[in-house]
User: What shape does this take?
Amino acid sequence: MTVKRWRCTVCNYIHVGNEPPAKCPECGVGPEFFELLDEIEVNHDEKKQKLLQETLFKIQYGLFVVTSKKDDKINGQICNTVFQVTSSPLLVAVGINKQNLTKEYIRASGTFTVCILGQNCMEIVKTFGYQSGRDVDKFADLKYTLSPLGNPILEDCIAYFDCRVIKDKCVDLGTHTLFIGEVVAGEIVQNDEPITYLGYRSLRSREGKKGAKKWVCEVCGYIHEGESPPEKCPVCGVGPEYFKLIE
Assistant: This one.
């Protein structure tokens, strides 16, 4: 079976479906602004897909808040796709969903800052993963300082590094952009062990309410508890259609 991929010609948002969306979820334009990119094969062998996803769960990630700015505005989001690319020059990569406001800010400023989270991160994940900066000021009740490049550094992070985007090395991945940045500043803020994504899932599971339904994101493995799946995965950004109820 094949499905169609459509691209918004205004903001480059990628939609998958037989028809373009009635409204672009990122910039708000109608279906007439979408162009057909291609058709891709969809594998419906559920057992094979489940096995492949379980295999990918063995890949370990950290858990970070990536921040940036646009003019006098600041924003940040949860991200688990952060890794060092080279040591000379010192380059890192971050993967950001194109629908997210942080992507817009990184494009505008050409900079981003990565705040590495410690073990006590549950409230930070809720603040930066469950709501959009388009609707709320995520930094309103948090203590932070500004990095040398002018991006927010969370007081509760254990370390940070400041990056200037190398535009000609960034990669369009369809739903996400892989930003490559040169590290120009950084500091260890406090002596604590960084949280891993697996560690966060374990903490989340222990804090969950008894009897609550659990939903797993089939893209990144994030576990959500509630009567229904979330509107957006706080880690990878996909919608509720990518969540499956755990029996």
Notes: The mean pLDDT is 87.
